[in-house]
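TICKET: design request
STATUS: open
ATTACHED STRUCTURE:
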């Protein structure tokens, strides 16, 4: 189930790209990134809704106002992460987007240090440098080759890291993962729709032109894949789960090669490998005897 989840998330990068290929805003056949993001979250919320209601009925105590507030905040962060990533994918390759998004892996423990003064394991620092070096190689060893889309995707990685940190804390505290999922999906849908009405041209033709991609990114990626992850990780060793989920970026590159004809030269392949190894090292380090740099006082 985890491998299928990673495959769905990796292939979704292609859907996020193709939804904007060949569309013409002047003819009303284009969909804006905010509207695309909003619709996919609403669809994901519809998938999770029955499961969240079942969870609610079985919960021993109702959610507190503080939990709801935190869930809403988590939804805002998730929306910003998704929206900035979507903007970036329009102007970069799927392969680049997949591997640059992986910057969130070393950023998670760094954010934990900044926000909660919890020192990360020593592997985080060389892994962070490895991700930066990998991004440099991924773009041909020339900073001028970075597109605006690449920078948007790297910015999204910061918010993905923040989102993962918040979810890791508040799911444990509330013990209501599906309620959190439903709330954050609804918040993402609301924000995306409102911003699209304010800043984008919303047309039925644009939605119709990207209908398959919207369905794939909403129902499969947001709704089904997230639910499978929650279920599967209850029956999988954390180290095993981390290794399998890291394959998301590899699936992104694979599907980009199959469906979009994207190809990488030797230097770019080396950059992808360096990012993947760095991300994997951070994820499996907690289950290996590696000493900490220190402890916060």
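STATUS: resolved
RESOLUTION: sequence designed for all positions
ATTACHED SEQUENCE:
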């Amino acid at each position: 189930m985890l491998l299928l989840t990673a495959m769905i998330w990796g292939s979704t990068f292609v859907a996020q790209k193709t939804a904007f290929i060949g569309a013409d805003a002047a003819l009303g056949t284009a969909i804006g990134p905010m509207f695309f993001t909003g619709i996919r979250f609403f669809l994901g919320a519809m998938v999770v809704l029955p499961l969240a209601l079942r969870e609610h009925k079985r919960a021993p105590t109702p959610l507190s106002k503080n939990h709801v507030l935190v869930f809403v905040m988590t939804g805002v962060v998730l929306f910003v992460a998704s929206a900035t990533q979507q903007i970036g994918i329009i102007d970069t390759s799927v392969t680049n987007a997949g591997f640059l998004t992986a910057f969130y892996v070393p950023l998670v423990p760094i954010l934990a240090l900044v926000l909660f003064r919890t020192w990360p394991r020593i592997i985080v620092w060389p892994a962070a440098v490895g991700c930066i070096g990998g991004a440099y190689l991924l773009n041909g060893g020339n900073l001028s080759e970075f597109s605006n889309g690449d920078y948007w995707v790297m910015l999204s990685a910061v918010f993905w890291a923040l989102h993962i940190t918040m979810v890791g804390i508040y799911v444990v505290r509330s013990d209501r993962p599906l309620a959190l999922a439903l709330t954050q999906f609804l918040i993402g849908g609301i924000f995306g729709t409102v911003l699209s009405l304010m800043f984008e041209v919303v047309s039925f033709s644009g939605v119709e032109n990207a209908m398959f991609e919207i369905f794939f990114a909403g129902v499969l990626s947001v709704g089904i894949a997230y639910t499978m992850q929650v279920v599967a990780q209850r029956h999988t060793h954390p180290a095993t789960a981390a290794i399998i989920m890291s394959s998301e970026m590899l699936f992104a590159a694979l599907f980009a090669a199959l469906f979009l004809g994207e190809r990488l030269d030797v230097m770019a392949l080396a950059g992808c490998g360096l990012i993947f190894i760095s991300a994997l090292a951070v994820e499996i380090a907690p289950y290996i005897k590696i000493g900490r740099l220190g402890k916060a006082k």
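CLOSING REMARK: Residues 2-287 form one domain. The CA atoms of residues 104 and 157 lie 5 Å apart.
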